[in-house]
Specification:
Number of strands: 10
Distance between the termini: 20 Å
Helix content: 10-25%
Strand content: 25-35%
Number of helices: 4
Shape: globular
Largest sheet: 5 strands, antiparallel
Order of helices and strands: HHEEEEEHEEHEEE
Amino acid sequence: MTIAALPDHNSITDPLWLKLFHGYRHVIAPLRHNGWITDMETGGGENHIRAELGDGTELSIASVHDLPVDPNEVTGWQVIRRHIEDHSRHSVLYDSTPNGPQSHHGNSLVPMFARIDELDVPKVNKRLIVSATHTSPYGANHNQTGPIEAPGTGIARFFEWSQRLIAEEGYRHVWERPEPDGYPLALFESAGHITTVRVTRWHD
């Protein structure tokens, strides 16, 4: 399995938890590919993503305040690293909310995960690469390849490329490999043009 297990608690059947967990999959999946069990916290009406780093600390990811139910309303990310046993011991790792030092990145995923992947904590020691193949209706192919990256950043780049195809280039999402079956692979179509976006392991 290339991705960390799901959290084990009763909330995983709760409709709100399921809606948030799947709605924020573009943030949660990169954390899980780093090998960290990642959960959506919904207690007290304050939604945030929590990932245990395996060294006695955890990441808490929210936005200006908590995470809105609709991910499209996010205006930036705030990542806090805190001690599991003492939440008063914490530091802001990244802040791209409107008044944060990384506000120029907005809700972009790749800069956030590039910062997270710099942490010296237990994580999956693999390198990934994102690539895309664009095929026109008359058979011409064009390939695009991203840089070699740590798992979190690589998976985040997959989601950003996929979102750009839909939001900016008018593609529709046709198919995606089920999550536990390997690295992400998705197929998109627009007026006979087919684009396949994939993540593969880079073998040194």
